[in-house]
Design brief:
alpha/beta; three-stranded mixed sheet; 12 strands; flat
Length: 367
């Protein structure tokens, strides 16, 4: 299962957001730096309204969503790349995740200490990104040292890799993360042995206070974060009140809805964050159903049908014959499998068919 790591400075609301995402109080969220030391890991279901619509056609009540893992990582401080705070541990935990959710504090609260003394979201973003860039430069230098002899002996593959590393080094030295550098598929293949922290898919969370969550990006701090991230990093930003979302998990659904209505919001921001993170990881969802359940399955964007079948059972991959495929909205519009077949909506696909997001698949196997 792929992982998204929640990062940021201490006391910005990472653990509070994590608790809201997994709907528990698993992670300590106290008012002091480094209350999180070892990473907390939780499985989060992907909200998907398509499951209900497919279940109405399939006439089954059991819905099984797909999921991803979120990891609550210890807060970073200035100098982390040199071992300050929990720096080395923090950086090693980031290396283990597949995407980054960067939480930025956008609220004033005298009862919650800020490690730099005052609220400045752009400065906070730059502190974290600077430390990641410095760590990447050190990683790059180690890789260049490792391939130095091969480059000196004129080995073409090493020379090509060294040239790309030089290109990346200049980019990092200008203060820019690797993910903002336009690298070709071939160039990325050459640097696969050098997993840069700043090359991980990222999303930013502007963590607002409860009284301004209804403002969204009209909140001055959140607006600054979104503008900065769009201009300098090219990533999405989502406005969330982590404390509110954490409080909502203790309420009954009706109470939660009424509370949000009082605050001027119609739905939780968490669903948008979860779905965006899912896409950020390069994941797609396909569906299967039988007389007992409708189930969502996760695949990477380039997964062929035969490998998707193997997720259900290894025998399905080994005995794959064909896949009967229909897009979920065509199935729903038809109202039943029989009508969908009559209208010619179902397609027969072979093992090399690349599964699309929203496909409903019936695998035919010979086992």
């Amino acid at each position: 299962m792929l992982r998204a790591g929640i990062i940021g400075l201490p006391n910005v609301g990472k653990s509070t957001l994590f608790n809201a995402l997994i709907r528990s109080r698993k992670a300590p969220a106290e008012n002091y730096p480094f209350c999180t030391i070892d990473p907390n890991i939780g499985i989060v279901q992907i909200p998907d309204d398509r499951l209900k619509q497919i279940s109405a056609v399939a006439k089954v009540n059991t819905l099984i969503p797909t999921a991803i893992e979120f990891v609550d990582i210890a807060g970073l401080v200035k100098g982390a790349s040199k071992g300050e705070g929990l720096g080395n541990k923090f950086l090693s935990h980031i290396r283990e995740v597949d995407a980054i959710v960067h939480v930025v504090r956008c609220f004033e609260d005298p009862d919650i200490a800020h490690v730099t003394g005052n609220i400045d979201p752009i400065r906070d973003i730059e502190i974290v990104n600077y430390e990641l860039i410095i760590a990447d430069i050190e990683l790059l230098h180690k890789r260049k040292e490792k391939i130095y002899k091969e480059v000196k002996h004129g080995e073409k593959h090493a020379i090509a890799e060294d040239q790309i590393l030089n290109k990346i080094e200049a980019h990092l030295n200008s203060g820019k993360p690797v993910l903002t550098l336009n690298l070709s598929k071939e160039e990325r293949e050459l640097i696969k042995n050098c997993p840069f922290l700043t090359d991980k898919p990222s999303i930013y969370v502007a963590n607002l206070k409860e009284s301004t969550i209804g403002m969204g990006f009209n909140d001055p701090y959140a607006a600054k974060v979104r503008e900065y991230v769009q201009t300098h990093i090219g990533c999405d930003t989502i406005a969330v009140c982590a404390q509110l979302e954490s409080d909502l998990i203790d309420l009954a659904p009706e109470e939660a809805a009424e509370y949000m209505k009082e605050l001027g919001i119609t739905e939780s921001s968490l669903d948008a964050l979860i779905r965006t993170t899912y896409k950020l990881l390069g994941l797609r969802t396909f569906f299967t159903f039988n007389e007992k359940e409708v189930r969502a399955w996760t695949v990477r964007s380039d997964t062929p049908a035969v490998k998707a079948a193997g997720l259900i059972h290894s025998d399905f991959e080994r005995g794959f014959v064909r896949a009967e495929v229909i897009h979920w909205d065509k199935l729903v519009s038809a109202g039943s499998v029989a009508h969908a077949r009559e209208k010619g909506y179902y397609r027969i696909e072979g093992k090399d068919y690349i599964v699309n997001d929203g496909d409903v698949i019936l695998f035919k196997v010979n086992v």
